[in-house]
Each structure stands twice: as structure tokens, then as C-alpha cells.
Design a protein that fits this description.
This protein is about 25% helix and about 35% strand. It is an alpha/beta fold. The termini are far apart.
Length: about 180
């Protein structure tokens, strides 16, 4: 399984001013990238607040994190609510046949996958804005190291798309073990 974050952030590292803010502040170029990228995933994982604020997610196969269900509850052909505290999420994804899992937010979703060490890559657009305060991409420090794989300027205003990949994944691709021996 591959777990990929797709997020947009301000210059000061905020993904939103508050839990119910939609990401309408992102650039049109980022929205184009987002729609194209989401089509590559078998399922999109979001928090309950993100699901409620992003109307376009109703048309996509989604797993929604919530504490309002015991383990999981199918809410329709494209929506399943799960309580990550009461379910083996990796087993759930395997049973559903999900290989490519997109993580769309918010902070609690990103922290969950980070805490378990499951993050493989991050697609992060930085928009030339500053909120001053708000929600961060992560509330906890990253468990795994990431390396910049690519960056692309999206527009003249300065929106930049970064693609980070977990350091171990780079080592596997290059054929090295990624470990160093010390004497």
C-alpha cells in the first residue's frame, strides 16, 4: 500500500484558519493538480470536518475518520466512516483492495498516518499567503525523514508544488539499503 498526502499550505505553514474552512483560498493551478492527483487514488481518506467542507468529495470514494461510529459504518456506495481508534486500518484497506490511498486532511488524519509511520510521499503546494495562525499540516513531528523529489512553479504569483518522498523509498529505488555502517 502507498499512502500519499496531498495538501495546500500558506507560507507560514497553515492548511486552514480553522477546522471548517474550505480550501477555496488555494490557486486555480493547485486545484487542477489536486483533481488530477485524486483520480490516481483508489480511496481518499479525510477527517469528518474536511469531508463536510469539501463538497466535491461526495463524488469520490472516501474513508472518513470520525469518533461517531464504533468501528466502521458504510454511509453510501462512496463513503465509509471509520473510527481509527477501534479498527485495524491497514487490514481494512487490504480487505477493500485499496493500494493507492490519498490523504486529504486535516491535521488529525496526517498525524495518524505519521504516528504509524505509514507516510510514503507528500505533495505539498505552498501558496504565497500567510494566515498568521491556524491549523498546521502536522501537530506532531514527523517520524520519518523525507527528501525533496521535485518542485514545480505553478503560476506567476509564486505558488510552488513540492513532491517529497520518504527517504527509505528513495534508498529502495536506488538499490541501496539506506543504512550506514559505523565502526
Amino acid at each position: 500500500m502507498q499512502f500519499s498526502i496531498v495538501a495546500v499550505s500558506t507560507l507560514d505553514g497553515r492548511i486552514a484558519r480553522h477546522s471548517f474552512q474550505p480550501t477555496t483560498w488555494g490557486s486555480p493551478e493547485d486545484k487542477i493538480f489536486l483533481r488530477r492527483k485524486l483520480n490516481e487514488f483508489d480511496v481518499i481518506v479525510v477527517g469528518n470536518n474536511t469531508y463536510k467542507t469539501a463538497r466535491s468529495l461526495k463524488k469520490r470514494n472516501c474513508v472518513v475518520f470520525t469518533r461517531s461510529v464504533k468501528s466502521f459504518s458504510v454511509k453510501g456506495p462512496l463513503c465509509t466512516y471509520v473510527n481509527p481508534s477501534h479498527i485495524n486500518l491497514k487490514r481494512f484497506f487490504l480487505r477493500q483492495g485499496y493500494e493507492k490511498i490519498g490523504l486529504l486532511g486535516g491535521t488529525q488524519v496526517y498525524d495518524y498516518f505519521n504516528r504509524h509511520g505509514w507516510l510514503d510521499e507528500i505533495f505539498l503546494t505552498i501558496e504565497p499567503l500567510a494566515f498568521g495562525k491556524g491549523l498546521s499540516l502536522f501537530a506532531q513531528s514527523c517520524r520519518k525523514a523525507f527528501r525533496l523529489l521535485s518542485l514545480r512553479r505553478l503560476n506567476r504569483q509564486g505558488s510552488v508544488l513540492f513532491h517529497f518522498i520518504r527517504s527509505e523509498a528513495i534508498a529502495r529505488k536506488s538499490g541501496s539499503s539506506g543504512t550506514r555502517r559505523t565502526k
